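Hi support team,

I submitted a single chain yesterday and got back a structure, but I'm not sure I'm reading the token output correctly. Could someone confirm the output below corresponds to the sequence I sent? I've pasted both exactly as they appear in my results page.

Thanks,
R.
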Amino acid sequence: MLRRPTCSRSVGTALLAAFLVAGLILGPSTAAAQDASPSVDLTGTSIAVDGGETSTVTAEYQFEIGSAGSGENELASISGTMWQLPDREIGDISATVDGESVDASVTEEDRHLSVSVPVADVSDGDTVTVTLEYEVAGPAGDLRVPLWVPEYSTPGQANVVDATLTLPEGTTVSGSAFPSPTAVDGNTATYELLHVPGFVAAEYGESGPGILSEDTLYSLLGVVVIVGVVVGGLAIDRKTA
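Hi R., thanks for writing in. Yes, this is the structure output for that exact sequence:
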């Protein structure tokens, strides 16, 4: 009769200890699982490239913060990559956030730079403008300029990336170009793009593309085919007449 309470107390103590251990194990992981990740869209980009042997890039990115996240996942910086292209040297990288200078973190990785821009006191519904400026050195006549591609992409439903490439005075796009310009007027090429490309490239010189460019060849081929069909049809009509 006297031993039963002792047994009950032992069982109760064991159960309490088990609950405490489970709480210590599950508590941190449960809290971490509740931390929400940021939701961010790149809603607009304006890129200006003043091209030459040393090109100056000014790129402005507008981010719409759907959710700033929480806990350890709260948005504190926006990172992106910048390709390290052969025979091109990137330097003098500076950054601003909403017009205020910040210290961008630049880390050299395998064939690219990782550039992280700090953002502070960001709330849901905010719009954050990040601007990067830097220089790219390379050979004359063959422009290849890496662009900062942020970790957050555009919605992909409209051309929200505008870019302008200004070549040295008296020159124009004279060969292959990537991306394909929307328009070329003298030494200025403009682009309207869906996403931020990894780089802008253009061969340039004093004269534009030759008359037998790829587009011209396809156009001439189309004309030849049409003329051939018409002439062939007329010849058949004459024979059957």
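A quick pointer for reading it: The longest strand covers residues 54-67. Let us know if anything else looks off.

Best,
Support desk
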